Amino acid sequence: MGYIQNIENSAILDAYLTDIGRQLMSRGDGSFKPSKWVPFDDDIDYSLWDSSTPGNEDATILTTPVVECITNHEYAAKHCLLSCDVQNLKYLPKLSATPSELSIAHKFLIANYTNFIIQQQMLDSDRSTIPPQMWDPAFMVVVCDDLLEVNGDSYYLSSDNFRTYVIPSDSNQIENINSATILIRGKNITPSMWNSIGHGDSPNRHIITRIRIIGATSGIKTDVIVTILENY
Amino acid sequence: MFKKFSKNDITSETMLLYENLIIYSNSFDDNHTRKYNNENYYHASNSLGYFGYYQTIYDNIPSIVDSHALCDVAYGISTASNLYASTTVQQTEKNNVYKIFASMLLGSPNERFQWGPHYADELFFITFKRDTYKNKICYQKSALWISSSYDNVTTTASDFCSTNLYKSECVGNYGALYSCSVGYVFAICYYDVGVMILPTASLMVGSGPAGVFSGSYTLLDILTGSSIDSAVDGMRNHLLYVNINPVTERRITTYKCSLPDREYNYSSNPTYVNNDGLIKVVSGSEYGPCVYVTGIAILDDEDNILMTAKTKPMYKDLNTSLVISVKSEH
User: Fold this and answer.
1) Per-residue pLDDT tens over the stretch A15-63
2) B21, β-bridge pairs
3) Which residue of B has its CA nearest to A77?
4) Which residues are B175's β-sheet partners?
């Protein structure tokens, strides 16, 4: 582990290059340019917080093992920490998708766009306003590139074939709700793909895939489960 | 979410890492040596007389997978040597070896190695491998033990007490391994290129008749009437101990990441909130969020994560500021 010393409120840590960091550094053309940073808490399970033991609520969290740095840049830092001018928030904005699950015939999905709505809002009793620093001007939509495409700007294709699209939030916002409409369409699924990843018996198989939506500023996530039906 | 580095947040420094490497006499025996034929191909029989120009010394039996080459040993002679005319075997090859090292270490194949007023025209060359001497050999930390071919007396030479560090125009720093008991230079070490040269005079300490140097031959017989292979065989038999301190230069860049008390007190971790978005983790009687930092990601302007560093969970709340220094070594 890159941990060298950790004295009260300071620490000295060893950095490890990610795959893309190593690739950029090996080019030797100055394309390796660290410019910004963000702290993360990937190994923390906050559900282990035990409020029934005052003064010792985090005993389990602090003694839980931490894994080594992940060098695959796509998984190197999943849960980033957030800043907010409002210092005593009881709630964080939530992302929700409507519908949160879709079940669509493959033929229909290829021929037509299907839409779902993403909403970011505070779910406290007052439905208070989203703090400006957590308001997402856009949403990152990650889909399996073999199965689905999104009507929007493609931003990135990962090595394991997940494509990220950037969808701006709607310009006409309802009060205290930040929303966006996502349009998805199916791609042609070959018989061999049905054979390899389809569930059930031909010709009534189905494929389950997950669409992940991430707030571009807040980093808050939600998933939409899509079931593609072979023969309807 | 991201925070830009300011100019003062990124600092660089060079750190030197010193090691101590000792090669004992057993590493110079036949079992740890790889010999080559006259076309410089390794010959598995390892037998004498294959007329290679050098031999390679290993830290283990060379055919074992995890053995590492430590150094090459060669012998060369200058045309200015008194022994040159009487050299009957591999005369040209021995001179070529001398010229190659003269060219590399002195800047010209026609130069002669010299220490003080004395020329060194018959030399053994020990070329340390990069993995052995790393970036360079540390000055004033090298030592040799050699047994003489005359009466097998062991002489110790080192650069420990030498105050003279010389700088060559061709290959950087070099210095002498001096024997206080004998009173002259036994070897010259070129620290930056990892080469040690030993005049044959180093093997002639003592008195009495010339002893056996290699096989049943004296040093003079070997130098004139035998191959480079045989000369190196004899040299290996008389090397008892070689001590160098390899130096590794490390360039360290430190990225200072400051988390003030009012920043980074919330998390996008899905376990941080319940289904309604209510924060599960609060500190103190006054409602205030807290988080546990387990790492820092460093990115470029294209949002590529270039490096990460991890730590044990570090508590952070409204009353806590953290300073995390992330060190990157190249």
Assistant:
1) 999 999 999 999 989 999 999 999 999 999 999 988 888 888 889 999 8
2) B244
3) B297
4) B189
* B79 and B176 housed in the same domain: yes
Q: Which residues of B touch A124 (CB under 8 A)?
A: 276-278
Return d(Cα B314, Cα B330) in angstroms, integer.
Answer: 27
> Which tens digit of pLDDT belongs to each residue from B25-70?
999 999 999 888 765 555 555 454 557 889 999 999 998 988 999 9
Report yes or no on B1 lying in a domain. Answer: no
CB pair distance less than 8 Å for A91 and B300: no
* B302 interfaces chain A, CB cutoff of 8 Å: no
* Interface ipTM > 0.85: no
Count Cβ atoms within 10 A of the Cβ of residue A185 and give its class: 0-12 exposed, 13-18 middle, 19 or more buried.
Answer: middle
- Does any domain span residue B2? no
Picking from B190, B217, B244, the residue at the C-terminal end of a domain is B244
Domain that holds residue B225: 20-244
Q: B311, A44: Cβ pair inside 8 Å? A: no
Which of B244, B271, B286 corresponds to the end of one domain? B244
For A126-159, the pLDDT digits (tens) are: 778 888 888 899 999 999 999 999 999 888 888 7
Q: What is the pTM of this model?
A: 0.72
Subunit contact A58:B292, Cβ cutoff 8 A: yes
B310/A81 Cβ within 8 A = no
Looking at the structure, do residues B237 and B265 belong to the same domain, yes or no?
Answer: no
Domains and CATH numbers, chain A: 3-63 (no CATH), 94-229 (2.60.40)
Dihedral pair phi/psi, residue B26, rounded to 5°: -65, -25
